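In the design runs reported in the main text, the only information available to the sequence generator was the tokenized backbone. The following block is the verbatim input for one such run; it is reproduced so that readers can re-run the procedure and compare outputs position by position.
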């Protein structure tokens, strides 16, 4: 299921567990915020709003309040000895979408613990798997570069065969 919602003058297409940066919102890290301006809700069937979908909300957890990279605005008027340099860092909120709600349902105000990722299943013990693993390791292993012999030192400048420049008369 996905939704398109509007905040900060921009529109975002999101699904559950998406992490995105939006313009600064009120809220401390760990709080749940709701977005009511949902324009489209999709999934099995797509619901378009006119202008918004009635009863639809998007709930998100605030992860961080931060500032973006510095943007330099440098203005120069040639031949006028006029220069202006201004720096600006936009503030943003990092959020994780927790759920997309329809039919006027209320968002869960408590942050649900995220499920831990299970480690990859271990390879089965068998002769075939160990042989293929060894072959793949040998194919991907990097070869150590061969040592190069030290270069011979250059001859002294007096031992040069030809002098540089034009001959004197």
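Verbatim output:
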């Amino acid at each position: 299921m996905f939704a398109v919602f509007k905040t900060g003058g921009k529109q975002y297409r999101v699904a559950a567990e998406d992490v995105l940066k939006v313009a600064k919102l009120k809220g401390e890290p760990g709080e749940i915020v709701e977005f009511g301006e949902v324009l489209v809700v999709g999934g099995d069937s797509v619901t378009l709003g006119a202008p918004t979908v009635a009863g639809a909300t998007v709930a998100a957890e605030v992860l961080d309040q931060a500032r973006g990279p510095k943007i330099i605005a440098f203005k120069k008027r040639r031949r006028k000895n006029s220069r202006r340099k201004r720096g600006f860092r936009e503030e943003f909120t990092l959020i994780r979408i927790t759920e997309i709600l329809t039919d006027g349902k209320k968002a869960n105000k408590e942050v649900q613990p995220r499920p831990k990722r299970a480690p990859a299943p271990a390879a089965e013990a068998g002769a075939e798997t160990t042989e293929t693993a060894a072959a793949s390791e040998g194919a991907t292993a990097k070869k150590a570069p061969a040592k190069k012999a030290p270069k011979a030192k250059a001859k002294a400048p007096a031992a040069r065969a030809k002098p540089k420049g034009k001959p004197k008369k």
